[in-house]
Amino acid sequence: MDSVTMICDSMKLTWIQDNAQEHKMPLKLFGELPQPLIDSLGIADGIPSSMSAFLLETGGKRILFDTGMGSPDSRLVSGLAAAGVSPADIDYIYLTHFHGDHIGKR
């Protein structure tokens, strides 16, 4: 699944999965983890994660939350197109924080 759209009242929200390939976050990002927990969850190679962006359409405006990884196989532009939106149609970009997977820099 590359995207999902929900409509609530006068708002339309589209989730866009940016990463085409499987992505795993390194365990070191989470500090010290007990080995029994790592083993029980089967996460020794990293924690599976999805890189996502969100498009909110409300009040005639389009707001893109985060811009994804910016990798060559990014699904952001195709996800926007599936929602009937081009990058030029975006009115505002809101960056939730400055990690590479949220600001288009891998």
Structural account:
- There is one protein chain.
- The protein has helices at 35-41, 76-82, 100-103, and strands at residues 3-8, 11-17, 23-25, 47-49, 52-58, 61-65, 92-94.
- By secondary structure, the protein is α+β, with helices and mostly antiparallel strands.
- It has one domain (3-103): Ribonuclease Z/Hydroxyacylglutathione hydrolase-like (Metallo-beta-lactamase, Chain A), CATH 3.60.15.
- The strands form 2 sheets. It has a 5-stranded mixed sheet, covered by helices on one side. A two-stranded antiparallel ribbon has the order 3-4.
- It is elongated.
Distance between the termini: 22 Å
Residues in β-strands, percent: 25-35%
Low-confidence stretches: none
**CATH architectural type:** 4-Layer Sandwich
Helix content: 10-25%
What is the spatial order of strands in the main beta sheet?
A: 1-2-5-6-7
Mean pLDDT: 89
Q: What's the alpha carbon Rg, rounded to whole Å?
A: 16 Å
Query: Pairing-aware structural class of the strands and helices?
Result: alpha+beta
Order of helices and strands: EEEHEEEHEH
Characterize the main sheet: 5 strands, mixed
Given the structure, what is the number of helices?
3
Using the alpha-carbon principal axes, give the shape: elongated
Work out the count of structural domains. Answer: 1
What is the CATH superfamily? Ribonuclease Z/Hydroxyacylglutathione hydrolase-like
Please report the first level of CATH classification, the CATH class.
Answer: Alpha Beta
CATH T-level fold name: Metallo-beta-lactamase, Chain A
The oligomerization state is single chain
By DSSP, the count of extended strands is 7
